[in-house]
Amino acid sequence: MPTPSIVFGLISALAWGTGDFGGGLAARRGNLFHAVAASQGAGVLLMVALAVLRGESVPAAVSLAWAAGAGLLGGAGIAALYRALAVGTMGIAAPVSAVLAGAVAATFGVVAQGSPGARLVIVFGAAMVG
Questions:
Q1: I want to staple 63 with a disulfide (CB 3.0 to 4.6 A). Which of 30, 57, 59, 77 is the partner?
Q2: Cβ–Cβ under 8 Å, residues 56 and 48
Q3: Residue 95, by phi and psi: left (phi above 0), alpha (psi -120 to 50) or beta?
Q4: Average model confidence (pLDDT) for the chain?
Q5: How far apart are the C-alpha atoms of 30 and 86, rounded to whole Å?
Q6: CA 33, CA 88: separation in Å to the nearest integer?
Q7: How far apart are the C-alpha atoms of 102 and 108, rounded to whole Å?
Q8: What is the pLDDT of residues 90-101, one digit of tens each?
Q9: Which contacts qualify for 28-37: CB closer than 8 Å, 24 or more apart?
């Protein structure tokens, strides 16, 4: 029986992959701005709805500022991804963007926490070669 982390990981991969494919397809068929606004708007609505349902308090102003900055940069990243998916080959753009996003996260992790060890460096190197 698969562990919950494997199941949630697969569900997450399915959701992200479906969202990326759908966003790229929407950007190819229509307006890039509309595709990004719809995806980001849906995320904001879901986040606010969940916060209200859970009875969360309003975060501090500095936290809201960081969240707004992250949201703007995330939206710009999604716009770049959707544009690449719209004008290029999805089978190339999607994995390249995924590995680059992973490289940014891994680089930050190495800077903040040190080297992940030889095994993970080899695995990440294989992903980059792929």
A1: 59
A2: no
A3: alpha
A4: 86
A5: 9
A6: 17
A7: 10
A8: 788 888 888 888
A9: 28/85, 28/86, 28/87, 32/79, 32/82, 32/83, 32/86, 33/79, 35/82, 36/75, 36/78, 36/79, 36/82
| Residue 20 near residue 27, CB atoms below 8 Å | no
With the C-alpha atoms ordered 35, 36, 42, 43, is the resulting torsion angle positive or negative?
positive
What number of H helices and E strands is found in the chain? 5, 0
CB 99 within 8 A of CB 128: yes
Indicate the pLDDT class of residue 26, thresholds 50, 70 and 90.
Answer: confident
Q: Which two tokens stand for residue 124?
A: 């990440």
What type of residue sits at position 33?
A: F
Q: Are 34 and 25 in contact (CB under 8 A)?
A: no
Cα(43)–Cα(71) distance, integer angstroms: 10
